[in-house]
Structure to design on (395 residues):
């Protein structure tokens, strides 16, 4: 584009031409950005990709740990409610659907980041901007309600996981303590367990409170990856011990139904859905990665590992114990110290996992609350909310 008007002779014309060059470069950058948006590249800009964040391995550790929790111990009973054929096929389908939906969620967040020039997008923002792009006028006008509803259910879901973890910790510790007098070193003789009554389960819950308070004070995903790695190791060891027990002496499975009564399938579905616990941590992990372009691969790998583990533990447990399978497979194991150590290892693993599940509701509630007060009150309010939320899950 040429300019014929001069403000100060030839020199002024030269200055105008020099001023037009950056605009041309900006147009090229914008064109390149639009092209990358259409290609579906990650939401973060190159500058943001080099910022300090979690590595691919740390993201994988968090993702696997976010899934593997207390639900895996109930999968053998879930298999009984679905059938020895229907159960594994249903778990495989649910794992595929969960992974596919997570990929859709991540792609939507990345697209809106490009469109709105934002460094990252949380669940609420993704839903709100998705509704704003809807062809429905009513949905566009009420897009902010979508954000509030999703944030509310995320808080309820993740806090619910934390409550389940507290109950699991208290019950398992109580079982170990009460059976300590009748626990032997002989794992081949499963004698009747004589329990020694101890304090109420609520007191066991209260005993975990100081440790949980210290854990939730860790607000960095990089630091939390240490606890997630420790939890993965302890749970892996415990699942290996369970597996080596159940593969010994698997009876003839011909008497087990391929497809169970349809009335009990809902029980299977509830346990299986509860087992896939990581939907709440997907976007936080993607937002905190150093190189978010690798996250789809990490997501597929992590969900494949989790789904294969679930199918293996659920199927083998049902094959081994059949109709005698209990609500938690640990209750079917002999009362010896080797298998009691499974409960102890799981207590350590779940205790370390609590902070990861707690991270999601904390990241929704605390930034909003601290933004309403003066800066000097932000840290005390942050600590108070964390303490109140942990105490709420122990009630």
């Amino acid at each position: 584009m040429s300019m014929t008007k001069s403000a100060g002779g030839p020199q002024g014309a030269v200055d105008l031409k020099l001023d037009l060059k950056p605009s041309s470069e900006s147009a090229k950058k914008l064109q390149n950005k639009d092209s990358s948006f259409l290609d579906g590249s990650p939401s973060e800009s190159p500058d943001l990709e080099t910022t300090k964040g979690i590595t691919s391995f740390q993201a994988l550790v968090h993702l696997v740990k976010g899934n593997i929790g207390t639900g895996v111990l109930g999968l053998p009973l879930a298999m009984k409610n679905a059938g020895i054929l229907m159960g594994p096929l249903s778990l495989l389908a649910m794992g595929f659907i969960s992974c596919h939906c997570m990929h859709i969620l991540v792609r939507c967040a990345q697209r809106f980041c490009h469109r709105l020039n934002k460094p990252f997008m949380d669940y609420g923002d993704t839903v709100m901007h998705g509704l704003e792009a809807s062809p429905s006028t009513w949905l566009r006008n009420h897009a902010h309600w979508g954000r509030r509803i999703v944030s509310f259910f995320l808080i309820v879901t993740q806090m619910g996981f934390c409550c389940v973890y507290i109950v699991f910790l208290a019950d398992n510790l109580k079982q170990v303590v009460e059976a300590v007098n009748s626990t032997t070193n002989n794992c081949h003789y499963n004698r009747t367990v004589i329990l020694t009554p101890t304090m109420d389960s609520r007191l066991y819950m209260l005993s975990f409170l100081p440790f949980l308070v210290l854990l939730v004070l860790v607000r960095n995903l990089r630091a939390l990856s240490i606890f997630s790695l420790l939890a993965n190791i302890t749970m892996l060891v415990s699942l290996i011990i369970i597996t080596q027990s159940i593969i010994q002496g698997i009876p003839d499975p011909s008497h087990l139904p391929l497809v169970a009564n349809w009335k009990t399938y809902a029980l299977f579905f509830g346990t299986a859905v509860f087992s896939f616990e990581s939907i709440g941590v997907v976007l936080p992990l993607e937002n905190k990665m150093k190189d978010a372009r690798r996250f789809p691969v990490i997501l597929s790998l992590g969900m494949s590992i989790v789904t294969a583990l679930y199918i293996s533990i659920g199927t083998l447990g049902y094959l081994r114990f059949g109709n005698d399978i209990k609500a938690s497979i640990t209750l079917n194991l002999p009362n010896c110290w080797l298998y009691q150590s499974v409960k102890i290892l799981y207590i350590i693993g779940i205790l370390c996992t609590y902070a990861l599940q707690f991270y999601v509701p904390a990241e929704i509630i605390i930034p909003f609350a601290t933004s309403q007060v003066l800066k000097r009150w932000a840290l005390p309010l942050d600590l108070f909310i964390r303490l109140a939320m942990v105490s709420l899950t122990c009630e």
In short: The CA atoms of residues 27 and 33 lie 10 Å apart. The first helix runs from residue 9 to 39. The chain has one domain: 52-394. The mean pLDDT is 82.
